[in-house]
């Protein structure tokens, strides 16, 4: 009786050829008192994409993600996730999303298996399928052997991996990861990215994540750069870098001052001395090198050409490097504080 | 012994990469009941794995009953008309044990928030009320275990193991466990630190205990204490329990008059059923408030 056929609610889109976007956000805003954390953002994430939200702490990434996963009510605008409105159809959104937060939300006193089982049952996953699904997600993150250990005995990296596994227990259509690799060692970070790629390959799932690691953003299919509550750029990492265009060329010369002057006169290039070498930007830097040798007129000892990085992209849009922004905004992480204040329930009134 | 099997041999690498896909059904009444059950069961699992807590729940009532009871016996022998003081305070001790345990159970909610697990439950596709109800029933169940342990000790303080007595006391203490857990959860909705929660609860629970008549008869109290006593909800848990115990004792009429006078309102004897009803009603009201508090938050 209670096994009454799993409601044949139209899970619109799953498997169908023309998907609605996994996430569609229009004019989304959020203010906390006087602070405008998110000032009208628009974007769409296609089904199956790995979409990254990049920006310094306090840029509004976490607030945006919280609105998308029904944890925070928007002050304005709309957001649809898996085809459902985050305000009006909150429970339908929740059925279809998996969440991994910055802070751990595991029960340390329960074993890994108990944590996952509790989650699956809370979401109403058919009990017959739970063991197989659990084994699959735990094997993916390499924790199957540890399923009977209490979670409090796990390291930070293991906990994060377990949270990812738990977020996947109910086969969500969209997985939200808020800074999934923050505070982890490089090796664990790499393995978490391996899981994300595995997921993308094996399950029909859309991944929406925030990060402030530039090197990780490279792994995303598309990224949105967020700064001070607005999206300042949105494209594939390659396209964004191409937009910045210019390569960075560094040369060591016999006479740097003369080289700078010569670059200005002969090529019209403004160069600066950075980290003990003459540095400038130019389109197709590699093709420029032969001309440089031929025409500069000053002996060159070494030359290096580097493609633009996402850090360059970030700098070109926001006028400062992500590290500078972080330092000036200090460690007191506005995003995190808001996340605490807005979720968890209760308290402060 | 020529086993050549290499234990290091790689496991069958090509485990079928077939994806086990599961479905999350739409929310329904059944799913809410299931959520209540899951949250309830988690409380029990956690209690079972917490050996220290089990140990303290075992030791505490012994301490109250035998140390306090035996210690004061010599002082009070004259006025208890030959009834063992331990027998007299037994219902009160049972209540305070249950209260303390219920309080600790409710504290786990604050704990859950501090360690993030509350959020895991809050984002699930179920109603907040289901989570709060599950939490409350779970806490009440754990607290009731405590009551059962004290019930087992009945014989050691000359309280007979009469089936009706045991059943009645069990039901009463379960109601109390429920009401106190509901109260604790109501308080926990507004408090973010375990320490402050414990402080608040102590401030409320200890006076409730002392005023309730758990340790003294409620007749012939000074007026101010009499008034406070009638206001104290715990009075209405201790009194029916004591009546039940005394109805199964063979004691003199004088002893009964002094030790088990029953609670009166302006001279009217409050029936035991009404007293139990008060506990239930209070519990439900506080649970309702707790649900409202949790539902109101984002």
What's the short story on this structure?
The complex is a heterodimer of chains A (349) and B (298). Chain A has helices at 61-68, 90-95, 112-122, 130-140, 156-168, 186-202, 214-217, 237-244, 256-267, 285-295, 310-318, 322-329, 334-342, and strands spanning 23-32, 35-45, 50-54, 76-81, 84-85, 97-100, 174-178, 206-211, 222-227, 230-235, 247-253, 272-274, 277-282, 300-306. With 349 residues, chain A is an alpha/beta fold.
Secondary structure tally: strands of chain A? 14
Task: Identify low-pLDDT runs of chain B.
Answer: 1-16
Estimated helix fraction of chain B: 55-70%
* Binned strand content of chain B: under 5%
What sort of overall outline of chain B do the alpha carbons produce when their principal axes are compared?
Answer: elongated
Strand content of the residues of chain A, in percent? Answer: 15-25%
Helix content of chain A: 25-40%
Quick one: biggest sheet of chain A?
6 strands, mixed
Biggest beta sheet summary of chain B = 2 strands, antiparallel
Rg estimate of chain B, integer Å: 24 Å
* Main sheet: strand order of chain A: 6-7-8-3-9-10
Oligomer: heterodimer
Are there runs of chain A of 5+ residues with pLDDT below 50, and where? 1-17, 329-349
Could you explain how this protein is built, in words?
The complex is a heterodimer of chains A (349) and B (298). With 349 residues, chain A is α/β, with parallel strands linked by helices. Chain A has helices spanning 61-68, 90-95, 112-122, 130-140, 156-168, 186-202, 214-217, 237-244, 256-267, 285-295, 310-318, 322-329, 334-342, and strands spanning 23-32, 35-45, 50-54, 76-81, 84-85, 97-100, 174-178, 206-211, 222-227, 230-235, 247-253, 272-274, 277-282, 300-306. A six-stranded mixed β-sheet of chain A has the order 6-7-8-3-9-10, with helices on both faces. In chain A, strands 2-1-4-5 form a four-stranded antiparallel β-sheet. In chain A, a hairpin with a 2-residue loop joins strand 12 and strand 13 (277-282). The longest helix of chain A is centred in the middle third of the chain and has 17 residues, at 186-202. Chain A is elongated and about 75 Å long. Chain A starts with 22 loop residues before the first strand and ends in a 7-residue tail after the last helix. The relative contact order of chain A is 0.14. The model of chain A is unreliable at 1-17 and 329-349 (pLDDT under 50). Chain B is mainly alpha-helical. Helix content of chain B is 69%, strand content 1%. Chain B is built from eleven helices and two strands; from the N terminus they run H-H-H-H-H-H-H-H-H-H-E-E-H. Chain B has helices at 29-48, 51-76, 85-114, 117-122, 128-152, 163-188, 194-211, 223-231, 235-247, 253-259, 272-296; strands spanning 264-265, 268-269. A two-stranded antiparallel ribbon of chain B has the order 1-2. Residues 1-16 of chain B have low confidence and may be disordered. At the A-B interface, helix 2, helix 3 and helix 4 of A face helix 1 and helix 4 of B.
């Amino acid at each position: 009786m209670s096994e009454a056929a799993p409601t044949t609610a139209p899970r619109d889109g799953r498997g169908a050829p023309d998907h609605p976007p996994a996430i569609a956000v229009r004019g989304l805003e959020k203010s906390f008192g006087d602070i405008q954390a998110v000032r009208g953002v628009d974007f769409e994430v296609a089904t199956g994409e790995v979409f990254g939200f990049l920006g310094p702490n306090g840029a509004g990434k976490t607030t945006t993600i919280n609105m998308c996963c029904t944890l925070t009510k928007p002050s304005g605008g709309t957001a649809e996730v898996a085809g459902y409105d985050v305000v009006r159809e909150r429970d339908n959104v929740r059925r279809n999303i998996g969440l991994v937060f910055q802070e751990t939300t595991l029960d340390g006193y329960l074993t890994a298996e108990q944590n996952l089982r509790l989650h699956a049952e809370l979401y109403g996953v058919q009990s017959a399928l739970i063991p197989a699904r659990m084994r699959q997600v735990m094997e993916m993150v390499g924790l199957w052997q540890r399923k009977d250990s209490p979670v409090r005995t796990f390291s930070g990296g293991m906990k994060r991996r377990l949270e990812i596994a738990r977020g996947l227990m109910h086969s969500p259509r969209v997985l939200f990861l808020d800074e999934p690799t923050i505070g982890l060692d490089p090796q664990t970070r790499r393995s978490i990215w391996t899981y994300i790629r595995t997921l993308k390959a094996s399950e029909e799932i859309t991944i929406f994540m925030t990060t402030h690691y530039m090197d990780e953003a490279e792994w995303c299919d598309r990224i949105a750069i967020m700064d001070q509550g607005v999206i300042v750029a949105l494209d594939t990492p390659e396209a964004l870098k191409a937009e910045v265009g210019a390569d960075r060329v560094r040369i060591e010369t016999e006479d740097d001052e003369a080289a700078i002057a010569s670059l200005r006169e002969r090529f019209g290039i403004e160069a600066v001395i950075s980290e003990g070498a003459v540095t400038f930007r130019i389109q197709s830097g590699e093709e420029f090198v032969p001309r440089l040798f031929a025409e500069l007129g000053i002996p060159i000892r070494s030359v290096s050409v580097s493609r633009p990085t996402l850090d360059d992209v970030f700098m070109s849009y926001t006028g400062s490097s992500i590290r500078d922004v972080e330092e000036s905004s200090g460690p007191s992480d506005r995003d995190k504080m808001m996340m605490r204040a807005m979720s968890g329930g209760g308290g402060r009134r | 012994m020529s086993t050549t099997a290499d234990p290091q041999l790689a496991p069958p690498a090509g485990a079928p990469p077939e994806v086990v896909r599961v479905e999350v059904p739409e929310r329904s009444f059944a799913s809410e009941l299931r959520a209540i059950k899951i949250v309830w069961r988690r409380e029990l699992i956690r209690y079972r794995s917490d050996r220290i807590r089990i140990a303290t729940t075992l030791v505490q009532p012994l301490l109250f009953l035998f140390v306090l009871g035996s210690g004061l016996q010599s002082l009070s022998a004259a006025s208890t008309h030959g009834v063992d003081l331990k027998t007299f305070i037994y219902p009160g001790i049972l209540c305070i044990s249950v209260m303390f345990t219920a309080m600790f159970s409710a504290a786990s909610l604050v704990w859950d928030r501090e360690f993030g697990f509350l959020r895991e439950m809050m984002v699930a596709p179920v109603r907040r009320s289901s989570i709060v109800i599950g939490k409350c029933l779970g806490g009440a169940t754990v607290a009731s275990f405590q009551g059962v342990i004290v019930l087992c000790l009945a014989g050691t303080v000359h309280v007979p193991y009469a089936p009706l007595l045991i059943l009645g006391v069990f039901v009463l203490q379960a109601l109390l466990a429920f009401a106190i857990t509901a109260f604790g959860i109501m308080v926990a909705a507004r408090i973010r630190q375990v320490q402050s929660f414990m402080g608040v609860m102590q401030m409320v629970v200890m006076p409730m205990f002392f005023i309730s008549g758990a340790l003294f008869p409620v007749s012939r109290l000074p007026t101010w204490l009499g008034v406070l006593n009638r206001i104290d909800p715990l009075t209405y848990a201790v009194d029916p329990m004591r009546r039940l115990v005394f109805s199964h004792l063979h004691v003199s009429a004088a002893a009964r008059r002094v030790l088990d006078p029953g609670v009166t309102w302006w001279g009217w004897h409050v029936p035991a059923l009404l007293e139990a009803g008060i506990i239930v009603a209070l519990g439900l009201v506080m649970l309702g408030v707790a649900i409202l508090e949790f539902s109101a938050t984002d």
